[in-house]
Amino acid sequence: MFDTLSERLGGVFDRLRGRGALTEEDVNEALREVRVALIEADVALPVARSFVKKVKERAVGREVLKSVTPGQQVVKIVHDVLVETLGGGEGDHELNLNRPAPVPILMVGLQGSGKTTSTAKIALRLQKAEKKKVLMASLDTRRPAAMEQLAVLGEQAGVKTLPIVKGQSAVQIAKRAMEAAKLQGFDVVMLDTAGRLSIDEQLMAEVQEIHRTTDPAETLLVLDALTGQDAVQTAERFKERVPVTGVVLTRLDGDGRGGAALSMREVTGAPIKFAGVGEKIDALDVFDPERMAGRILGMGDIVGLVEKAAQEIDQEKAEKAAKRMAKGEFDLDDLADQFVQMRKMGGMGAIMGMMPGMGKFKEAAEQGMGSKELARQEAIIRSMTKKERKNPKIMNASRKKRVAAGAGVQVHDVNRLLKSYQAMSTLMKKMGKGGKRGMAAQLGQ
Ligand code: GDP
Which CATH number fits domain 2-90: 1.20.120.140, 2.30.30.370, 3.30.470.20, 1.10.357.140? Predict the structure, then answer.
């Protein structure tokens, strides 16, 4: 399943370490895995295909970062494209209420999708967060229970509902709601249309008619995330008949992987505006593409790791150090630079913690090469003269004593550092070419 996408990619890309740039072949292989994983997460096939194409365009030729694996880098690209696909433009997730009051919002969707609950949730949110005066009206003329339900929810939430008048058609109720709102100074009118268990012509015609007569500022389609591909088909059918301006995705508190969200965004062309995250009246979040992408990928914090690496690591310096290392010219200044880079990433412990499956080594790594320890080692090197850093061999007893005092450590700490430098320097020479990718990379992978 999706949890292992990062592991799969890890496997595919392990072989690619040390290459300069991601080639088309490398990327193709990884993307086969991505496509399978997307389909497993309930993303429709054509959507998965077009998604993978986007990732490919972005990934091929991309320079390989030194401190993360190419696999991790592709995961990051997958994540970014996910966020963009789910996200749309700036302000896309807001309700568009720029109209003279009362502003109608039409709620459409299948029965059981959470339409009535979402109507009340959004109304409450508008009242609370935006200080809007909201009127709700149920247009479900066939199910008196649905009207009652909205009235009960309205009472719970402290949101007014239109008094129920028997015998009126849905369009008549909608008109009455708009008139009442105008007279009584409401800002927003939420119209909860009738649902059906499945789409039928009569329902669609009714929704269309209501849309035409009320001309809503927003037409929000409510979809149940747990129904996956069915919800995508529902979205397709509704979109044929009414111009959907936004999606409310409910039951995101359940354990659906949420891949359907991606399909919905593509199919409706409308942004997902809200996420239903529970039965309670305040269990509604503004849709967050970042969080959703994380959920779809389900893979620890590789994304954060790559972002950090890209931000913090000074590529040029690393490049230079790598060249010198390969030639066996690695000195204490280079070592100090490596420490700085690792510390910027939060120390070995933090790096381990971000890697899938490595969490258990986090503590051990933290003790040996945590931020504090790194800072200490750096301090020792900084207390040396330039000459000593370039040529550590000249470190005699009195020099060591001076350096220890300067760094606030014991002489044996200085000895330890010099010893590990020696070991590392020998290793670097041995590895020759292998030293290219920088120490952070060697240790971090
Ligand atoms: P409608 O027929 O589309 O109006 O659906 P309802 O609003 O009556 O919701 C059907 C059921 O789903 C109710 O029991 C709601 O409490 C529940 N529900 C609605 N939204 C969510 C949600 O986001 N999470 C969870 N767990 N339950 C929800």
Answer: 1.20.120.140
Tell me, using a 6 A CB cutoff, whether residue 114 lines ligand 1. Answer: yes
Which ligand 1 atom is at minimum distance from the Cα of 121?
20
Cα of 79 vs centre of ligand 1, distance in Å, is: 30
Q: Is the CB of 121 under 6 A from ligand 1?
A: no
- Under DSSP, the state recorded for 21 is B
Q: State yes or no: pLDDT of 4 exceeds 60.
A: no
Atom of ligand 1 nearest to the CA of 119: 7
Question: How many CB atoms within 10 Å of residue 327?
Answer: 12
Reported ipTM exceeds the 0.90 cut: yes
Q: Is 117 in the pocket of ligand 1 (CB under 6 A)?
A: yes
Give the fold, CATH level 3, of 313-444: 434 Repressor (Amino-terminal Domain) (1.10.260)
> Which of 46-60, 223-237, 343-357, 403-417 is the most confident on average?
403-417
Determine how many CB atoms are found less than 10 A away from the CB of residue 62.
Answer: 14
Domain ranges for the chain: 2-90, 103-286, 313-444
Residues 192-245: tens digit of each pLDDT:
998 877 778 888 899 999 999 999 999 999 998 888 778 888 888 899 899 999
Q: How confident is the model at residue 443 (pLDDT cuts 50, 70, 90)?
A: very low
254 appears as a binding residue in the annotation: no
Mean pLDDT of 184-198: 90
Q: Which atom of ligand 1 is nearest to the CA of 250?
A: 23
pLDDT of residue 332: 84
Read off the tokens for 170. Answer: 């849905």
| Domain 103-286: assigned CATH number | 3.40.50.300
Q: Confirm whether residue 252 is marked as ligand binding.
A: yes
Residues present in the chain in total:
445
Q: Helix %, strand %, coil % for the chain, to 5?
A: 60, 10, 30
N-term to C-term CA, the chain: 23
Beta bridge partners of 300: none
pLDDT at 357 over 80: no
Residue 343 to residue 372: CA distance in whole angstroms: 9
